[in-house]
Structure formats: structure tokens, C-alpha cells
Amino acid sequence: MITITENAAKYINNYLTKRGKGLGVRLGVKTSGCSGMAYNLEFVDEAKEDDLIFEEHGARIYIDPKSLVYLDGTQVDYTKEG
Predict the structure, then answer these.
(1) Cα-based distances in Å from 71 to 2, 13, 17, 42, 81
(2) How far apart are CA 54 and CA 5, in angstroms?
(3) Contacts of residue 61, Cβ cutoff 8 Å, sequence gap at least 6
């Protein structure tokens, strides 16, 4: 399960509004060089058939089933420092 904080949901929804389109954000894990894995974050304009969708506070996170193995239990948050 993926959870989304209220701050993250506000940021995602505001950004999608400014962008003018989009269903949510895709969070994934991909193999990356010799270091192993890297996180990938991108906008979703069209859902894929096998996407798992997690929604809280009106924001949606899309995850492919292979990435969920690595991301299960993740909390998506947004903070601004400095």
C-alpha cells in the first residue's frame, strides 16, 4: 500500500492544474547502472491497463506491479526547505 500525505496531495494537484492536464503521478523503480535501482517520477496522462492506483486527499499515484514490490509501504510526502 502507498499512502499520500495531505501536503503531497496538494502539491500534486496544484502542479497538475498548472500543467493543464494529467491524471496523477507515476512512481516507479527502474534498474540503474551498477548501483542497482533508481526511483522514477513522472506525470500520468493515460493509465496503463496493469497500473495499481492509490488515491488519498484527491491525488492519485500510479504504480506498475513490478515496482510495487520495492515501494510497498511508502509514504509520499512533500516538504519545502530553505
Answers:
(1) 7, 21, 26, 15, 25
(2) 12
(3) 2, 4, 24, 25, 26, 27, 53, 54, 55, 76
Predicted confidence (pLDDT) per residue in 15-58, tens digit = 999 999 999 999 999 888 777 889 999 999 999 999 999 999 99
Interstrand relation of 75-76 and 3-4 (parallel, antiparallel or unpaired): parallel
Give the whole-angstrom CA distance, residue 46 versus residue 62: 10
**Residue 20 DSSP symbol:** T
**Residue 43 belongs to what H/E stretch?**
strand 36-44
Strands 36-44 and 24-32: antiparallel
Please say whether the beta carbons of 15 and 27 come within 8 A: no
48 close to 64: Cβ distance less than 8 angstroms = yes
C-alpha cell at 80: 519545502
